[in-house]
Design brief:
The structure is a single chain. This protein has 253 residues and is mainly α. It has one domain (11-152, 210-245): Growth Hormone, Chain: A (Up-down Bundle), CATH 1.20.1250. Helix content is 74%, strand content 0%. The protein has helices at residues 11-36, 44-55, 59-85, 90-115, 120-145, 155-176, 194-221, 227-247. Helix 3 (59-85) packs antiparallel against helix 4 (90-115) and helix 4 runs antiparallel to helix 5 (120-145).
Length: 253
Amino acid sequence: MFSHEGPLRTPRQNTVVAGSLAAIGGFVNSSGFVIIGSFTSHVTGSVGRLGSNLANGDSSAAVFALLLIGFFFAGSFVSALILESTPGPIARGYGFALLAEGALLVAFMVVAGLSQSTHPHALDAQAAILCSAMGLQNALITRLSGAVIRTTHLTGVVTDLGIEAARWYRWHRRKLKILPPLLPGRTPAERPPLGRISLLYTIFFAFVGGGIAGAVLTLNISRWAMIVPTAAVLTSTLLAFRNAAKEVPPATS
C-alpha cells in the first residue's frame, strides 16, 4: 500500500489510502472545531481569520493566525523531509511520517487535557498541533499519489467532481441523443475514466463521514474522540512498516 508512488500505484491502492486518510482529515477537522472553534485541516480558515483580525486591528490575534498557517507549512515541511531523508524502502519513510502524525494527535489530547481552558492562547496552541498534523498528512498523500490526491479539504475534490460531471454529461448526450445540448462541442466527447470519479466520490464521502463522526463523538466524549483518528493513523503506520519489511531483501551469508 505504501511501497509505490505516483503512476506506479494502482487505482485500488489510491482509493483505499485516500478514503482512509480523508476520513481521518474530516474527523480531525470537525473534532477540532467542536473543541477549539477552529478548522485545522486546511489554511483557508486561517487566512480568513488573519484578514478579519487585521481589519479589526487585533494584531496579536492576527499574528497567531499567521502562525497557524506557518504550523501547517511546518507539518508539510517535516513530512517531506522525512520522506526525502529516510534511508531504505520507500514505505519506511511513510511509516515514520504517519508515526509523526499519530504523535501529534496524541499530543493534542494531552495538551487539551492539561489545559482544560477556554483561554484563546490555550485553544490556539491546540489548533497549532492539529494544523501541523494536517499539514503533515497533506504533504504525505500528495507525495504518495503524485499530487493526484488531497485528503484534508474538499475544495479541489468538489471542483474535480464538477469537471467530471460535465464530461459525463457530454458523453451521455452523444451516446443517448436525448439530453439537450448546452454548447457546441470544441472537442469530441469521450467517456471519462470511471476510476477517477470513483476515487473522487470516495474522498468526498469519506471526508464527510469522518466529519460527521468527529463532531458527534466529540460532543459526547470531548477530546477522547481523537483516539479514533489516532488509532487509524497508527494502524496505517504499522501497515507502512510492514510494507517496508517486505521490501528489504533477505540477508545473505
